[in-house]
């Protein structure tokens, strides 16, 4: 080091300092991008994991399948304009409940679900349930009716989502 010129030492020191600062800035910028990407991709999961206790750091989807219930052959009346007849649609769907106790209650009392939906849903045109808007409206109607059923039965919980598997005209 003694044989080096002072300008060489100064330029080496400046180069090392600049490259170190650049490396630190790149590290923090990439860490920030990764954290934001995780929040965008899994906003609910991140919140649920953050709310977990220190003892139990389970992921947000832990036992999520125990909140799902498959309901099949729910009939929905359809009004056919040509001959004035009333036919039916058969709908298979999955219910996502707010807790697994509601799922178990509905599993044991699936006749209440089918009776409620059969008696309260009004006839629709046959092409209506096949459109995006029709599916959305039917999904909301089923969710609303099941929430009313749960309140009527004094069960504590709600229906979070409805997923259609099939809609068949019969």
Description:
- With 170 residues, this protein is α+β, with helices and mostly antiparallel strands.
- The protein is elongated and about 105 Å long.
- Helices cover 51% and strands 21% of the residues.
- The chain contains 5 helices and 3 strands; from the N terminus they run ααββαααβ.
Beta percentage is 15-25%
Distance between the termini: 91 Å
Task: Summarize the amount of helix as a percent range.
Answer: 40-55%
Structural class: alpha+beta
* Biggest sheet record: 3 strands, antiparallel
Order of helices and strands: HHEEHHHE
Shape: elongated
From the alpha-carbon coordinates, what is the Rg to the nearest angstrom?
29 Å
What is the number of helical segments per DSSP (H or I, 4+ residues)? 5
List keywords for this structure.
single chain; 170 residues; alpha+beta; three-stranded antiparallel sheet; 5 helices; 3 strands; 21% strand
Could you outline the blueprint of secondary structure elements for this entry?
Layout: H1 6-41, H2 43-51, E1 68-79, E2 86-97, H3 100-108, H4 110-120, H5 132-152, E3 159-169
Helix pairs in contact: 3-4, 4-5
Summarize this structure briefly:
Helices cover 51% and strands 21% of the residues. The chain is an alpha+beta fold and 170 residues long.
